[in-house]
Design brief:
Elements lengths: L1 H32 L6 H22 L6
Helix pairs in contact: 1-2
């Protein structure tokens, strides 16, 4: 099982970084448009950033060193 996780670590890290980047871009668009809508969209963007960071942290814990 450990070998399987180590094999899958690079694609997992790639997905985590992609989610993190999309969240940052989404947050930038929302901040550019202003704080309209009660902050719900900003909360979604921050949630995406946090999810990407957690996935990337998981990959780092299992030996991901870089692309």
């Amino acid at each position: 099982m450990e070998a399987l996780v180590r094999l899958a670590v690079q694609p997992i890290a790639y997905c985590g970084n992609a989610i993190l980047l999309i969240g940052l871009i989404y947050l930038g668009f929302q901040l550019k448009d202003g704080m309209q809508g009660g902050g719900g969209e900003q909360r979604k963007a921050i949630g995406m950033i946090a999810a990407g960071a957690v996935i990337t942290a998981f990959a780092i814990l299992y030996g991901f060193t870089g692309f």
